Amino acid sequence: MEHSFIDQYSTLDSLIHRLDPRTKVIAAIAFVLAVVVTPITEWPALLGYFAFIGILTLMSRLPILYVVKRVLLIIPFVVLIGVFNIFRTGEPLATVHVWHWQLSVTHEGLLTFANVSAKAIICSLALVLLSSTTSFTNLLRAMQTLRMPKVLVMTLSFAYRYLFVLIDEAMRMWRARDSRNFGGRWIWQIGTIGNMIGTLFIRSYERGERVYAAMVSRGYEGQVRGMDSLSFAPVDAWFAAIGMLFLAAMCILVVLW
Prior knowledge:
- The chain is mainly alpha-helical and 257 residues long.
- It contains ten helices and two strands.
């Protein structure tokens, strides 16, 4: 079955693709932290962050539609989390009656919701740019070189490698269910779907045990290995310098504003 890999455009040739993975990981972390700590009222700074990451996205030559689709995946979660901020205490703008409750939409709540949404979109753009311009193996090696927790690195490695196997397994179970004329009201489907989820969990656990035993028997030591060597180049130094200058300029803008 065909699946859409998150690093399917990592083989393109652009300035962003040629950067060392460690440079991109450090830059992405610094950028996300700068966006997150920006005060809620500093919209010029957020617009600057959005323009900066937009320019880098254009330089990477990634398909715009692909980037937009990846960013839109995070929107439902942002709305689910941020919508409750609309009803914060403060100056009410409107009142909504839900059953026996009276909820007031406040100015501070709308501002918080807009700020959370804007920051989530900007950070999602940065993460999409990082994962789409770097092969996942090199990304994991960069995280390992930067001394990130080994458990985190290996969990991401196994998740990326076997997520599509589990998707195929779930799709086969779904197709087998439909071939048996599965239907009826949704209340009658709960038991069958619950059994499918339980079966998928057991199969995933058993497959994980078999895979781990096979890896240990082949000398697995918990290290991510790859064919390409990581090395810093002058372009990495220039990119890091420009990025740090931009973040410093944004900090000065926030302080002076």
